[in-house]
Design a protein that fits this description.
This protein is of the alpha+beta class and about 130 residues long. The protein has one domain. Helices cover about 30% and strands about 30% of the residues. Strands 3-2-1-4-5-6-7 form a seven-stranded mixed sheet. It starts with a strand and ends with a strand.
Length: about 130
């Protein structure tokens, strides 16, 4: 089966927006793209969804169908709640799908650090981030 990439929701400013990207094959890619595509020097940072290559906006109904049914074509599901400083990640890291929650600002710090393995860095700092699975 072809990997459809990741599906993600970005919450902020009183609204939620929903996207998919075939180029994001996991949370590590998502984190890397947040930093690599942050914007050009001297300009305002790009909005999060514009940092993710080939991000295509989808409807809330499409998102719910993908996330609620854990569509097998997607490798991860990510919810970024900017106002609440949370990033929820549902991804198979080797033992089936598991849900993790990290502080959004910590994820952005890891992105800026260029850490080779954001999972390792974040789980070392937040060992109780795994919520289920």
């Amino acid at each position: 089966m072809k990997n459809k990439g990741c599906a993600f929701e970005i919450q902020g400013g009183g609204t939620s927006r929903y996207f998919t990207s075939p180029l994001v094959h996991g949370f590590a890619d998502f984190v890397r793209f947040l930093d690599e595509n942050r914007g050009e020097a001297g300009h305002a940072p790009l909005p999060l969804h514009k940092r993710i290559p080939q991000a295509a906006q989808i409807s809330e109904a499409e998102w719910r169908n993908i996330a609620d049914n854990q569509d097998t074509g997607y490798s991860c599901f990510i919810v970024v709640n900017v106002p609440e400083n949370q990033v929820w990640v549902n991804e198979d890291t080797g033992a089936g799908m598991s849900l993790y929650c990290f502080p959004f600002l910590a994820v952005m710090e890891v992105a800026a650090s260029g850490a080779a393995d954001p999972w390792e860095t974040l789980l070392a700092k937040y060992p109780s981030a795994k919520m289920s699975g």
